[in-house]
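Why Response regulator transcription factor? Reviewers of the renewal asked for a concrete example.
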Amino acid sequence: MKTILIVDDEAKLLEVVSSYLRNEGYQTIEASTGQEAIKQIKKSPIDFVILDLMLPDIKGEEVCQLIRQEVSIPILMLTAKVKEEERINGLVLGADDYMTKPFSPRELVMRVKTILRRSNDNDLLAERISYNDGELTIDANSKEVFLKGTEVNLTPNEYKTLLVFARHPKRTFSRNELVEKVLGFDYEGDTRAIDQHIKNLRHKIESNPKNPHYIQTVFGVGYKFKGTSYED
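Here is what the prediction returned.
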């Protein structure tokens, strides 16, 4: 049973969202402040976080960053903000998706199911694969990524993006293909969200993100992955 942490200071919203999720077989934990959310993350095994950006004590963006420092689990942001820059900022901080208030609880449940299904898709062709004499290593068993021996903290979508490239080295993917493979065929948001995930990933695994070695842009087409690999 997956455990979902719902973080929002609206009691009615917590009640409704929790009810819908429990009816679908999920276990829920509720928090009305950012501080409560961080305490729950540290003391309980959490599989998914639904996080409101407008909290009474700490900004949701800061809570997202603090969660990312503790665990790599999917985060769905709830926001009343509608500006594109603000939505993109959520993706920059490591959120996997966002929903704008007011929203349909049924749609939220479907988003949760879709994101969890994507984050569980781990089909690397080898248990462990390394690139460029061990500079970059993906461990499929532990779902960990290492750069020069140091673990890299990737979000689920960043990890899934890297796996897609690792399974198909040197293949050029269009943006729409990556959206389908990483975000799901039923994803209805802006396809340019994949650009932000790739930008984040480059900053974490590339020595020079502005001149990337691994994830290369194929202008007018999309992206491809390049690296000399060996498998364990």
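The first strand starts at residue 3 and ends at 7. This is the kind of structural detail the renewal will allow us to pursue systematically.
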